Amino acid sequence: MARTFIGIGQCGSAILDAIFAEKNMFQIADPIVINSDVNDLKKLKNIGNQYWIGISRSEGFIKGTTKGFGEFVTGGFGNYPENAEEIIAPNYGKLKAVLKERIEGEPGDTSKEKHATPFALLALGTGGGTGSGTASYVARALKELYDIPVLVIAVLPGSGEGKEGDHLAWNAWRCIQGLSGIVDGFILVDNEKLSHKQNIEYYFSKYNTYIARCINDLIAGIVIEKIDLSTVPFGGEFKDIDFNDIVTTSSFQSSGENRPGFAAIGRASTQVRGLAYYMPVISKFSRGYSTIDVTELLDQVMVSLSLEIEGPDLENAMKNLVNVRVPDYYLEDEDRLDTKTIKKCMELYSRTGWRIFGLSRTKRDLVSITVLLTFLPDELQRLLELEDTARQYAQKKGINNYPL
Ligand SMILES: Nc1nc2c(ncn2[C@@H]2O[C@H](COP(=O)(O)OP(=O)(O)OP(=O)(O)O)[C@@H](O)[C@H]2O)c(=O)[nH]1
Ligand SMILES: [Mg+2]
């Protein structure tokens, strides 16, 4: 059953486009992009207009295939989510109808199996107008329509984003607060990691690709390249990961209530067959595959996390999930990959004891490790800083109708 992946606003659409650059993602999920600016939509390389939903001042929500779409969907909301909400709130019924139609197919459309979606992933920049203002309505619509788990890839604005830095922080905090009561979990992606770069737009595309790889490795790894663990000699050490595991790792239950967790995601990979592969003498036993230094790989994951977390603070992580992808060679014999060390390292990052360790294959000559580390919000320095900046902004502007 196809899941639903939705990108909202410029940032969200660009991340979704990067995710669907891998064509096998279309087997796993249906993409939807929602935006108020046709120019952003036209930049997408992998997601055609049959997947677009436009936000229009005059029409509310319209499908990408509507005649004259480009004339209705212009302008964006210039970093003012409040302005986006003025259009979205009165058109909420229309939003639900358009989403339902995109997910289930139009009446009379036999190409799609009629079904509900079992899972939704949203992606958006929390600092802007469109994504930040629309996301909670979309999340609420999905919950009301299908009562499914919803995870959010939430991009945080970097503190160095021009004079407007504190305004974007306010947007971000407001958006996260709004979503917190609705969604199951957040995967935070911090643009602060790019704050020292000169040409930030250029790095966006690289960063989006990195996040997309993390998501692909996690999701394609568990759906398409799934392994029957009973055929692997040491398969008993691993869990057969499914979507539920990702959702449960990124959320908390306390006294019967679900509360979203705040996760960082990271990935590192290493090429496993270099030139040695072409030298028959060397490759006789190893078939050219090299030994993997898993400690080094895990160190790389931790410094490449989507949110910068100081070494000791990593140990505040409440839960974690790891997915290791390997070529078949490493599945044949326990000694070829030091999974025990990975397991041991991850014990450090799980205060609740919740750890999931999954294994999947890849046809590439690559070993990759993807990690999800989940925190409580008040244990993430970055969120505390964001809240602080947002509070100062609200005071400066005399905003007093929002709980901080
Ligand atoms: N990582 C990343 N961040 C982005 C990208 N595009 C924009 N951002 C960040 O997202 C925030 C702004 O959100 P956008 O997605 O541009 O805004 P929008 O949702 O289109 O809303 P408006 O244009 O204001 O209506 C800022 O913090 C940007 O730095 C991207 O492709 N990748
Ligand atoms: Mg925009």
Textual characterization of the structure:
The protein starts with a strand and ends in a 7-residue tail after the last helix. Strands 1, 2, 3, 4, 5, 6, 7, 8, 9, 10, 11 and 12 form a twelve-stranded mixed beta sheet that branches. It has 14 helices and twelve strands. The mean pLDDT is about 90. The protein has two domains: about 5-220 and about 380-395, Tubulin/FtsZ, GTPase domain (Rossmann fold), CATH 3.40.50.1440; about 260-380, 60s Ribosomal Protein L30, Chain: A (2-Layer Sandwich). The protein is globular and about 65 Å long. The chain has helices at about 10-20, 25-30, 40, 70, 80-90, 90-105, 130-145, 165-180, 200-225, 245-250, 280-285, 295-305, 340-345, 380-395; strands at about 5-10, 30-35, 50-55, 60-65, 120-125, 150-155, 185-190, 250-255, 255-270, 320-325, 355-360, 365-375. Helix 7 runs parallel beside helix 8 (about 165-180). Strand 5, helix 7 and strand 6 (about 150-155) form a beta-alpha-beta unit. The longest helix is centred in the middle third of the chain and has 24 residues, at about 200-225. With about 400 residues, it is of the alpha/beta class. About 45% of the residues are buried. Bound molecules: guanosine-5'-triphosphate (GTP) and magnesium ion. Magnesium ion binds near residues 9, 37, 128 and 130. Guanosine-5'-triphosphate binds near residues 9, 11 and 161.
